[in-house]
Amino acid sequence: MTSLKLSMMKTGAIAELTILEDIDLNTIAREGAKMIVLYKAPGN
After folding, report:
1. CA–CA separation, 29 vs 32, rounded Å?
2. pTM across the whole model
3. Are 6 and 33 in contact (CB under 8 A)?
4. Are 31 and 5 in contact (CB under 8 A)?
5. H or E element at residue 8
6. Closest CA to 20 of 32, 30, 9, 5
7. Residue 31: what pLDDT?
8. I want to staple 31 with a disulfide (CB 3.0 to 4.6 A). Which of 3, 4, 8, 42 is the partner?
């Protein structure tokens, strides 16, 4: 879930995010990189 939130932040869909959980940023970054290529902005 965290990787999805961070991916959406990168696209600008979410401006601010507070994560209240212990996380492994390397794993999240890898998962987010996989998801970001699938994102299509509204209207595209």
Report:
1. 5
2. 0.41
3. no
4. no
5. helix 2-11
6. 5
7. 86
8. 3
**What's the longest Cα–Cα distance across the chain?**
35
Radius of gyration of the chain (CA): 11
Tokens of 29: 């970054």
39 pLDDT exceeds 70? Answer: yes
Which long-range contacts does 7-12 make (Cβ < 8 Å, 24+ apart)?
7/32, 7/35, 7/36, 7/39, 8/39, 10/36, 11/36, 11/39, 11/41
Collapsed DSSP state (helix, strand, coil) of residue 21: coil
Asked whether 7 and 35 are in contact (CB, 8 A), the reply is: yes
Give the position of tokens 């990189």: 33
